[in-house]
């Protein structure tokens, strides 16, 4: 099972509505598709989304890293010795985690196809369906309340609320409006995307607790590099705190875990460099008794299917943030995970379960 060819293609798909966080506003999916072909004719698919403000990876850098650095080192390798292949991939260059993730996804697609198993079963097979949350972009309190009510009507009972863009008093108003719109039947998670400082985070989270807003957890309240500040917030409030941008690598995860700087970790394939390293992060967290969530950037159903396969395979992954494909104006992927409202079902086909990728043919 020799790697014969590695190809890439840029794609762009409009979103139904702009996606707004404390870090950016996104109007369309911009990503790189990867197609890896082996000598036995098998094809594996991967994808990397460009999220410069989080990973530092642009469309141009992803494409260049794959074609000019990774491809020459991987062509000719035998995927039956896949440990060697993944070591080669991750040692090929420093950083560039999104590019590594796209190749990693395609490699796992191929390996699990060769094994004749859906990828989630190949990786552990803990569950065969998930329930995703839905993200409410940061806007005016009124608009966010209306959006939250609309997502509730669509069947979503866990909402991830983007905050941290303006002052924290405005964030509290947003949460109050959302809670008023959806009542107490919906779980609310907050994602500040590094938008708060330590003192205002502690003061405001305590205030939200006193107000009884019922926040399930809060993601990355402070800057990614500020582990001491993250720990101060975690130690000072009752609401569980989740590390996101603070954890790209297993080494960074270990720092968070050893310092008890967070109660949970959000693993994303684009940060970790793919499934190979993501498994190590989850294993470390499990040993420390820390549960994980798996999420995604703005990605198509191709990359989200890979993340969902990984998430479904592991007991310690208890929360799922896979709404990105539902935000796209059109899909362009046949196969992979399927959505029935908030419920995601794993495919029965081997590998990722991708049957065709019309986006590859330019139908986007």
UniProtKB/TrEMBL annotation:
Residues 141-240 form the Mandelate racemase/muconate lactonizing enzyme C-terminal domain. CDD domains: L-Ala-DL-Glu_epimerase. Its EC number is 5.1.1.-. It holds the Pfam family MR_MLE_C. The keyword ATP-binding does not apply. Binds 1 Mg(2+) ion per subunit. Keywords: Isomerase, Magnesium, Metal-binding. InterPro entries: Dipeptide_epimerase (IPR034603), Enolase-like_C_sf (IPR036849), Enolase-like_N (IPR029017), Enolase_C-like (IPR029065), Mandelate_racemase_C (IPR013342), Mandelate_racemase_N_dom (IPR013341). It comes from the Bacteria. Gene3D superfamilies: Enolase-like C-terminal domain (3.20.20.120), Enolase-like, N-terminal domain (3.30.390.10). Its cofactor is Mg(2+). It is an enzyme of class 5 (isomerase). Belongs to the mandelate racemase/muconate lactonizing enzyme family. This is Dipeptide epimerase. It comes from Brevibacillus porteri.
